[in-house]
Amino acid sequence: MSRVALVTGGSRGIGAAISIALKNAGYTVAATYAGNDEAAAKFTEETGIKTYKWSVADYDACAEGIAKVEADLGPVEVLVNNAGITRDAPFHKMSREQWQEVMDTNLSGVFNMTHPLWPGMRERKFGRVINISSINGQKGQFGQANYSAAKAGDIGFTKALAQEGARAGITVNVICPGYVATEMVMAVPEKVRESIISTIPVGRLGEPEDIARCVVFLASDDAGFITGSTITANGGQYLT
Ligand code: CAA
């Protein structure tokens, strides 16, 4: 029987590419989304991947949503914490709301999704938790004190939890994508975006599939000895 993979923010952007790549690799995939019903319906129609609506920022909604996915598809063995938002502003203009929204989704969201799934993974002695952080959690970014803090938090979370999961057959890893051609990056003002691209040695934005391939590898049985790792996929823009 195929393994069940749950991808948050899995119907658009990098998440959509991850959902599709996991499906193509033989997983039964559930994708969550928070707001865009139209995009989710179109995604399901095109790919046959089931979508579920809830906010990862809401712990109770995560627990209820996960229970529904598991009732429909079976125990979730692969969790991809991909959902994320930006609320960019220079710090002197950043509001408490902009700070809090990003922390709630990009950092607490990872806790909220992983925590309800953890006991089952421990009992079954198998699990794959793959967190999607960012180059900007590694190097920081002007205008992203909130986002960089949350994404750096995801890296620390990964390293701590990897140690707790190791004996239970659960690997926990984090991928740090660089600038990838998605709506989120396209929302950056063109001049700023062009100047960022000029600092990427490979000379282009990443493709969502560049990140999806990393996820498929980390989810596989072949990657069982890799845990607590940070995989950097950024076209050489920042070398760790
Ligand atoms: N370093 C130093 N100074 C900078 C700067 C930088 N990187 N970017 C802007 N500034 C300066 C500007 O030159 C300007 O200075 P002057 O007033 O002296 O001309 C000042 O800061 C204000 O700049 P803006 O007019 O652009 O300010 P703003 O308030 O309109 O916008 C911003 C600021 C929202 C941060 C905008 O610059 C921006 O969107 N930057 C891009 C941030 C970014 O890279 N976000 C990533 C989104 S994609 C993502 O997050 C995915 C991922 O994981 C990679």
TrEMBL record:
GO terms for cellular component: cytoplasm. Transmembrane segments: none annotated. One of its GO terms (biological process) is poly-hydroxybutyrate biosynthetic process. The keyword Oxidoreductase applies. GO terms for molecular function: acetoacetyl-CoA reductase activity. SMART domains: PKS_KR. Keywords: Oxidoreductase. It comes from the Bacteria. PROSITE patterns: ADH_SHORT (PS00061). InterPro entries: Acetoacetyl-CoA_reductase (IPR011283), KR_dom (IPR057326), NAD(P)-bd_dom_sf (IPR036291), Sc_DH/Rdtase_CS (IPR020904), SDR (IPR050259), SDR_fam (IPR002347). Residues 3-183 form the Ketoreductase domain. Belongs to the short-chain dehydrogenases/reductases (SDR) family. This is 3-oxoacyl-[acyl-carrier-protein] reductase.
